[in-house]
Amino acid sequence: MNPFAYERVMDDKAAVHAIAANKDAKFLGGGTNLIDLMKDNVEHPSTLIDITRVQGLAEVSNGGAMIGALVRNSDLANHADVRKNYPLLSMALLSGASPQLRNLATTGGNLMQRTRCYYFMDTAFPACNKRKPGSGCAALTGFNRIHAILGQSEECIATNPSDMNVALAALQAEVHVEGPKGKRTIPIAEFHRLPGKTPQIDTTLKHEELITHVALPSSASEFATHSYYLKVRDRQSYAFALVSVAAGLMMEGDTIKRAALAMGGVAHKPWRKKEAEDAMVGKQANAQTFSAAAEILLHGAKGYEHNSFKIEMAKNSVVRAFSLALVGRTA
Questions:
Q1: Cβ contacts of residue 330 below 8 Å, gap of 6+?
Q2: How far apart are the C-alpha atoms of 11 and 205, rounded to whole Å?
Q3: Residue 3 reports pLDDT greater than 80
């Protein structure tokens, strides 16, 4: 690990001021991703700005709809209001990482964890456009079993590893941030980026901005009765998703009144298409309806030598997730 300076701040204004003054600094919350990247010689911040003592960012309020950036994943997943009103988010969080990591990881850190693959993490591989722009993408012709099938580019085919982000995308959350120019709100759909020509940039958050809260719309609680997070992976715990699905239904009798759908493990960011959700509205809740939505969501999917299986797996997973959501498995 390279040498670095350490600074602790006690309020959001001081945090913004500190990072704005140092373009090579990084915020430190739980550090579950950042510290690993530093140990692996992938990230080289000159300064770590410890924000864990910033007041007001470690609370869940408004019935679970307002989530502080420093709320630990385990606390959020087990919060009574979140389990009651937003069980989809709770299920997604509990499927991520391990209990030990969930006890340390934060909401803001989960949002900011790097979209990555093993070629990015291992500096023995020189070709990684995320780590070294212009060097190439080793995954294109390498072992690409876990890689993207949607939204990828010739520059990068890595996938966003977060389970929480998939649930937030389905629930249409907003990210509240603060910077030198004041506060702003970023819709979750606009927070994470597709790789394009600049895969080294994962989010639209500016360097000098601090995530303060994540807010869920009041409409997100409409999926409390019928929601499910399905994660397909190589082992039962401590593994990234090959494919994951965040599914929510608001029912009116046997008819779908509203639907929420987002997918993980398939793209550089959580994958959501409003058209897929809209296609279910007014239809009977059955496998045929769910399958049609999956076809819309996966339209244009492209596999590689080792991951073409993910296309059919993703479609089947959408049907499975909605079938489980329909029967009300919310905990």
A1: 87, 91, 224, 225, 226, 227, 228
A2: 19
A3: yes
> What does DSSP say about strands 5-8 and 226-232: parallel, antiparallel, or unpaired?
unpaired
Q: How many CB atoms lie within 10 A of CB 258?
A: 16
- pTM (2 decimals)? 0.97
CA pair distance 195, 197, nearest whole angstrom: 6
Contact between residue 68 and residue 107 where contact means Cβ atoms under 8 Å apart: yes
**Ordered DSSP codes for 26-86:** EEESS-TTHHHHHHTTS---SEEEE-TT-TTSS-EEGGGTEEETT-BHHHHHT-HHHHHH-
CA dist 45 and 194 (Å) reads: 24
Query: Angle CA(15)–CA(16)–CA(19) in degrees, nearest 5?
Result: 85
CA distances from 277 to 13, 90, 171, 280 (A): 40, 21, 12, 6
User: How many angstroms separate the Cα of 132 from the Cα of each of 119, 193, 254, 277, 285?
Assistant: 11, 18, 52, 37, 47
Please give the average per-residue pLDDT across 176-190, as a whole number: 98
CATH class for domain 224-326?
alpha beta
Q: What span, in angstroms and rounded, lies between the C-alpha atoms of 254 and 275?
A: 21
Instruction: Work out the pLDDT band at 329, boundaries 50, 70, 90.
Output: very low
Q: How far apart are CA 169 and CA 281, in angstroms?
A: 18
User: Per-domain residue ranges for the chain?
Assistant: 224-326
